[in-house]
Amino acid sequence: MKIRSITIFCQPGFPINRLMLQQVGIFANHARRLYQEAGYEVQSLRLATPPCESFIAAPDLPHAAQSYAIEAHADGFDYVSLGPVNSASKSWGMVPEAIAQSDRIFLSGQLTTPDGKVSLMAVRACAETIVKLAGLEANGFANLRFCALANVPAFTPFYPAAYAAPGRPSFGLAIEAADLALEAFTSAKTLDQAASALIKIIESHAARLEEVAQKVSRMYSYEFKGLDFTLAPFPEDSKSIGKALETLGLEAFGLAGSLFASTFMTSTLDKAEFKRTGFNGLMLPVLEDSGLAQRASEGILTVRDLLLFSSVCGAGLDVIPLPGDTTAEELTPILLDLAALALRLNKALTARLMPIPGKKAGEMTEFDFAFFANSKIMPLESAPLKGILLTDENVPISSRKARD
Q1: Are 248 and 191 in contact (CB under 8 A)?
Q2: CB 3.0-4.6 Å disulfide test: which of 29, 254, 314, 339 passes with 118?
Q3: What's the CA gap between 274 and 229, in Å, rounded?
């Protein structure tokens, strides 16, 4: 287990408030040192601002991205999220140019409105942005730094979903802990034992992580928002959430029974007691997980499966390799489904979709990237919408309420 990120939430503005950036940089580096002394590896320090359009004019977004990449890095931050573009924003067209400024800059796009509506205009704009980003870098890599958000609140530590709300600086931890699930499930003789073992090991680590967080919070008077124990994987079998789920008794993740296993995992995570922020669910990032990448290559795990599992998991559709000729019109229905699912079930979901230039469905990716496992390009099985689904309406979706 490691800390994927110490994510600092603050609002340095633009032009950048250098004093604030220096102060939160000192804090973040001090926090990393304390966690390292407590025995935890800290993979990265990350900064998340409020939604970019709240403090950056649309034409200035590329310049602001370049400035943040340089100045935040000088204060020790590995990456910066400038938050989401909202549904009716004029900033959509500037997102690809802003992301092109630096591989340290992340952005996102809101598919839903604060009052519980799906923005059909934003869904299409987000799909168009994904297609534009696909051609910016070899292997479609720019889409690693952009995702669509549906019903995602502020103070989520995981990127690219992270963004802040107004207020004093605060922080949260994104945890890479798929190996804990493997450890807990491997020796279990019953599902009850598996659940108990996972809860125990999570709560044990959470207590240690929170102790350090409260200590550094008191020193600087920055609020600790909590932990995101989404059991993020790493592309090794010993750190695969797909392999952990198969340890429960699945022949292969993606086959019938996988929805139950996913639900069992998220239900178990819900029972663990610790201070929470972010998703705290089941993350199924295909390219970041050797087990999931293998099942996708075998055709056992599909995009439709992952959308189904999103109904019970914690993050949604993540780092999915798609054909390079995928159009915005084909992506739009997928994003529309995800947005509807998020609002109807009242949960946070994201979509980070990666069309790979020059690749067709069934061909292997060719990534030379330590954080990705290669997999076959997954067919999208989508067709353009027509009729009144092509309007610019904001469509209200009521969350499902339990009946007496």
Answers
A1: yes
A2: 339
A3: 9
Asked whether 40 and 180 are in contact (CB, 8 A), the reply is: no
Rounded to whole angstroms, how far apart are CA atoms 36 and 352?
30
E strands along 334-374, which residues? Answer: 349-356
Distance CA(339)–CA(250), nearest Å, equals 29
Q: Are 246 and 252 in contact (CB under 8 A)?
A: yes
**What gap in Å lies between CA 148 and CA 87, rounded to an integer?**
11
Residue 155 has pLDDT above 90, yes or no: yes
Distance of CA 300 to the CA centre of its chain: 23
- pTM for the complete prediction? 0.96
Alpha-carbon 255 to chain mean position: 24
Cα–Cα distance list, 318 to 10, 217, 340 (Å):
26, 32, 17
- What whole-number distance in Å separates Cα of residue 316 and Cα of residue 151? 11
What burial class does residue 270 get, using C-beta atoms within 10 Å of its C-beta: 0-12 exposed, 13-18 middle, 19+ buried?
exposed
**In the structure encoding, which two tokens stand for residue 170, read together?**
């605060």
Please, are residues 32 and 45 in contact by the beta-carbon 8 Å criterion? Answer: yes
How many Å apart are CA 68 and CA 65, to the nearest integer? Answer: 5
Helices (H), 136-251: 178-186, 191-220, 241-247
CB 129 within 8 A of CB 96: yes
Task: Give the length of the chain.
Answer: 404
CB 338 within 8 A of CB 148: yes
Shortest CA distance to 68 belongs to which of 87, 46, 92, 84? Answer: 46
Give yes or no for a cis peptide into 15 (omega within 30° of 0): yes
C-alpha torsion sign, points 199, 200, 202, 206 = positive
Residues with Cβ within 8 Å of 257's Cβ and at least 6 positions away in sequence, in order, are 249, 250
How far is residue 162's CA from residue 157's CA, in Å, rounded to a whole number? 5
Tens-digit pLDDT profile for residues 17-64: 999 999 999 999 999 999 999 999 999 999 999 999 999 999 999 999
**Preceding omega of 51 cis (within 30 degrees of 0):** no
What are the C-alpha distances in Å from 60 to residues 46, 67, 72, 115? 22, 11, 17, 28
Rounded Cα distance, 177 and 191, in Å: 19
Task: Tell whether the model's pLDDT for residue 402 goes beyond 70.
Answer: no
